[in-house]
Design goal:
Strand order of the largest sheet of chain A: 2-8-7-6-5-3-4
Helix content of chain A: 40-55%
Number of helices of chain A: 17
Radius of gyration of chain A: 25 Å
Strand content of chain A: 5-15%
Order of helices and strands of chain A: HHEHHHEHEHEHEHEHEEHHHEEHEEEHHH
Number of strands of chain A: 13
Shape of chain A: globular
Structural class of chain A: alpha/beta
Oligomer: homodimer
C-alpha cells in the first residue's frame, strides 16, 4: 500500500510534495528495523531498535498500580458503570479531572517549583499534534520558526507539512558543546530577514532531543530576552522534562518567566506530552500549555482534530492524581534512566567510543567523527549503513537531525531490557575487535607485500581497494581503511 | 479563557479569522445548554440537549460485554500484562487486530454485502480528523468541494478551517424532499467554474445529517456517474450507516462501485467513525477508507496527528471481533432507534408538528415553516430563541446547516433516556396548548374590542404588539401572532 509517490494532479500539493519528511535516514532506519526486528528468542540476529526514544524502564510500577486500581478504568467490572458517561464525553476542554491531574503531573515533574493552571491545559494528538497546533496558531504559510540544530527530525513533518510554515536552522556546533549562542541566533534571524522571510518564533527542545542536554537558567533567560527583543514567540518543547537523571535539576521556562517580570507572556508556549516521561506514546496525550489567552482559545478549538480518548483521559486522571504513585514513579524513573545511560556510555567508552556529556532524554549523542573516512555526510551515511547492516543496530545519523557536522549519531537506550542492552554493547565490541584483527592482518599482509616487493600498492591504492564503492556493501571492511582513525586508540588501548 | 477574538498580528490568520465556524447558532445552542443543562433530579427546568447527535440507547449491552470480558482491557488485573506492549505502540498503521476488527464491523453494519480491506483502514481523530485529512489530501487552498445542503455545520470547521479548502453548496429543496438533482449538481459545478474556483470533489453524508434520510441505489449511481464525468472525487461520510432503522436497508458506496466497473475507484473515499453507530464519540475513532492507494499512503502519514489511543484500539479490537456481540448490538440498536424515532415524531404530530420522512440518523428534520412569522431566516432565529429560552429545548436551526429554506430544525432524539424524551414532548405540548389558549383569549378579546368599538386596532397593529421586538424576549407570546399558522391546524384538530 505504501506506494512511491507520483505527481497526481487530482490530489493536493501536500499529498504529492513529500513534505511529510519520511524520506529521511531517520525513518529509513525504522524501516530497516521493521523488516528484521530483533527478538531475544525469535530473532536474536535481528536489528536492535535504538532509534526510538521510548521509556520502557518503569512499566512494572505502572502495572502494579493498574492491578491495585481496577476502578480507575471504565473497562473493568469495578469501573464499567462509568463507561457510558466517559464514552459519550467529547468536550474539547477535556475531563476536568484529567486537566487537573495533568497540571499536577507537570508541576511534580518540575520539582513542584512551578504550578500550572488546569484551564490552560489544551489537549492534542501527542506532541506531534501539539506542535502542529502551535504552528497553525502562530505562523502563516511561508513564515518561519528558528530552530537550533541538531533538532528532532519529526519537526519537519509536525510543524511544516500541513501548515506551510518554514523551519530555519540556528547552527550550533560541537566546539561549543552544541550550545545556542547569541551570535548564532542573530545570524539566523538576519539571514531570514535578508531572504525576506518573516520569523514568528523560536522553537527549542529542553531537554534537547537529540543531545540529551538541558538548558541552564542563564541560557534560558538569554533566549527570553532575545525573543522579547524581536517580539517573536518562544515554543518550549519540554516533553523530556521528567527524564533528567537523578541528582540534577531541570529548569522549565515556566520558572524563568516567574523570574523575568518584563517578559511578554503572550509569547511563551510549552509543548508537553506523556509519551516520554511516562512512556505512553500509544495513548497520544499531547498538551499545549500557552500563556497567551488567544492561543489557548484557538488551540482548544483545534483540539477537536486530536482529542485524547476519554477512556485514556479517565484512567490517567486517576493515575496522575495519585501523588504517592507519581512522586515514586518520577524518582524511580530518573534513577533507572541514569543507570542505563551510564551502563551504555561506559560500555562504549571501553571500546573508545565517546559521546556528548548529557544527563537527560532517553538517548545520548554518540561521537563517531573520527570513525568516518572523510568528514562528509556521505561518509556518515556510508558508516550508518554499516551500523545498520553489519552491527545490526538502528541508531540515527546526525544529518537526519540537521546537525551541521558529520559523525554524530543519536543512540536511544531506554526502549529495551538489560539483556538487549548487553547484546547491543556486545555487538559493537565484537565488531570493533573483529575489525581490529582484520586491520592487524591487513597491516601484516601489507608489510609482506612491501617486503616481498611483489606488489607496488601504495597506501592510497590500498585505501581505494578498501573503500566502500569497491567492496560488497555487506563487507565489514567497507568502512575500515588503514587510515581510519578507528584502529589507533584501540591499538593504543590494548597494546 | 474563551476570550473574544481580536486581530493580533503576532498570531496567524487561521488563529484570527474565525474560520473555526463556532459563531454559528448550532454551537450557540450548545452554549445555551451548557449554561443551564437539564438534569432529571438536579435541574428539571434546565435546557434539554437535542442538538447533540449521540446514540445512548444501547449502553446496557456494552456494559454487559465489558463486565464479561475483563481481559479485553489493559487496565484490568486480567489484561494488565499487556499494558506495556500497548502503551508503547504508536505505529500509524494501528494495531493489526484493530484494523481487522474495524473492517469487520464496517462490513457487518452494511449487512455483510461488502467487505473492507484492513490494509486500507486509516485512523484519524474522529470523523472530524478524518474529514480534514481527506481535504488535505485532495484539495489545495482555494479549491473546492461541492456539498448538498442542508449539511452538518461542523464541516465548515473540519474541511475548511486549516486546509483553506472551500465548500460550495449544492442547493436541495423541500419541494423535492431535499433530494440531490442532476440540475442542482450541474448548477453548482458551473457556478464554481464561472467564479474561477476549481472543484475537486463532491462530499455527501449518507445517511444524511441532518435529514435522517439515506440514498437509494439509483441516486448513488447517478452521483458516481457525475463525479466520473467531471473527474472529481466522491467523499462519502457514512458515519450513520448503522442507524438505519430496522426493516430498511442502507446502501453503501462500497456496494455501488462493485456494480459499476466503469467507476474510477481512485476517486472514491469513505469516512467512517464509531461515534454514532457505536455511540463512542469520546474514544475519537475516525476512519478514512480510500480506494486510492496514494490517498491511503498519505492519509496514513497524516494519521500521526490523530491516532487512536492504543488503550482504546486494544479494547475495541476485542469488542468488535466478537461477532455474536456485534450482530446483536447492531440489530438491537436499530430497533431501539426506530422506536425512539417513532415515539418522538408521533408525539409531535399530535400537536400538529410534522417532519421530513426519515428512517436513519439520530435525529429528524422538523418542519416548523408554518410557525414562522415570515419565511425568513430572521424569523427562524426569533423562533429558535423562543424554543431555547421558553420551551428550553436545544434544537438546531436549519440555517446553521446551510439550509436554503427557513423553518426547518434538526431534532436529536437518541442522546437521552425515555423519561427525558417524555419531558421534552410534554414541554412542547404544554407550550403549544398554552399558546392556543392565549390565542383563543386574544381572539375573544379582539372580538370584544371590535364589538365595543373602543379600540381601533387593526390586525396589523395587533401583530406589531405581538411581535418579538415589542415584547419581553421571555414572553411565550413573542413568536405567536394572530397570523401565525400555528393555531389553525390545532384549532381544526380540536374544534
Amino acid at each position: 500500500m505504501d506506494v512511491a509517490m507520483v505527481n497526481d494532479n487530482n490530489l493536493s500539493k501536500i499529498a504529492t510534495n513529500n513534505g511529510h519528511g519520511e524520506n529521511s535516514p531517520y525513518f529509513d532506519g525504522w524501516k530497516a528495523y521493521d523488516t528484521n526486528p530483533f527478538h531475544l528468542q525469535h530473532n536474536p540476529n535481528g536489528v536492535i531498535q535504538m532509534g526510538l526514544a521510548e521509556n520502557q524502564l518503569c512499566f512494572d510500577l505502572i502495572q502494579e498500580w493498574i492491578e491495585a486500581n481496577p476502578s480507575a478504568s471504565i473497562c473493568t467490572p469495578q469501573g464499567a458503570f462509568d463507561f457510558k458517561e466517559k464514552a459519550i464525553f467529547q468536550d474539547y476542554h477535556g475531563l476536568p479531572e484529567f486537566r487537573t491531574a495533568i497540571a499536577n503531573f507537570m508541576s511534580q515533574v518540575r520539582g513542584n517549583r512551578v504550578t500550572f493552571d488546569p484551564t490552560r491545559i489544551v489537549m492534542s494528538g501527542g506532541a506531534t499534534g501539539a506542535h502542529e497546533t502551535v504552528a497553525f496558531c502562530l505562523a502563516n504559510p511561508g513564515e518561519a520558526l528558528l530552530v537550533p540544530t541538531p533538532y528532532y527530525p519529526g519537526f519537519d513533518r509536525d510543524l511544516r507539512w500541513r501548515t506551510g510554515v518554514k523551519l530555519l536552522p540556528v547552527v550550533c556546533e560541537s566546539s561549543n558543546n552544541f550550545n545556542i549562542t547569541q551570535e548564532a541566533l542573530e545570524t539566523a534571524y538576519e539571514k531570514a530577514k535578508l531572504d525576506n522571510i518573516k520569523v514568528k518564533g523560536l522553537l527549542i527542545t529542553n531537554p534537547s532531543n537529540p543531545l540529551g542536554t538541558h538548558f541552564d537558567k542563564e541560557t534560558l533567560k538569554d533566549l527570553v530576552t532575545f525573543i522579547n527583543d524581536k517580539n517573536i514567540h518562544l515554543i518550549c518543547d519540554e516533553i523530556y522534562a521528567g527524564t533528567v537523571t537523578a541528582g540534577d535539576e531541570f529548569v522549565s521556562i515556566a520558572e524563568i518567566i516567574e523570574e523575568e517580570p518584563e517578559c511578554n507572556r503572550d509569547l511563551i508556549h510549552i509543548v508537553y506530552s506523556l509519551s516520554k516521561d511516562m512512556g505512553f506514546p500509544g495513548f497520544r496525550v499531547g498538551i499545549v500549555y500557552s500563556y497567551n489567552d488567544h492561543v489557548v482559545s484557538i488551540a482548544r478549538k483545534m483540539s477537536s482534530f486530536g482529542l485524547v480518548s476519554t477512556q485514556t483521559q479517565h484512567m490517567l486522571a486517576s493515575m496522575l492524581s495519585d501523588n504517592m504513585f507519581v512522586v515514586n514513579f518520577i524518582s524511580e524513573s530518573r534513577i533507572r534512566l541514569a543507570h542505563r545511560h551510564d551502563m551504555f556510555t561506559r560500555g562504549l567508552a571501553q571500546v573508545g567510543i565517546g559521546s556528548l556529556e548529557s544527563n537527560a532524554g532517553l538517548f545520548f549523542w554518540m561521537d563517531l567523527r573520527r570513525f568516518l573516512k572523510e568528514p562528509t555526510f556521505e561518509s556518515e551515511m556510508t558508516f550508518w549503513r554499516i551500523i545498520i547492516n553489519e552491527i545490526k543496530l538502528n541508531v540515527s545519523p546526525g544529518q537526519s537531525f540537521h546537525c551541521s557536522e558529520p559523525g554524530w549519531f543519536r543512540v536511544c537506550f531506554a526502549n529495551m531490557d538489560d539483556e538487549t542492552t548487553m547484546i547491543a554493547l556486545r555487538r559493537i565490541k565484537t565488531f570493533v575487535l573483529k575489525n581490529k584483527m582484520l586491520e592487524v592482518k591487513i597491516k601484516t599482509q601489507k608489510q609482506c607485500w612491501q617486503n616481498n616487493q611483489h606488489l607496488k600498492l601504495s597506501s592510497r591504492r590500498l585505501d581505494e581497494i578498501l573503500t566502500p564503492h569497491r567492496m560488497s556493501p555487506h563487507s565489514p571492511l567497507a568502512w575500515m581503511s588503514p587510515h581510519s582513525p578507528l584502529a589507533s586508540p584501540l591499538v593504543r588501548a590494548q597494546n
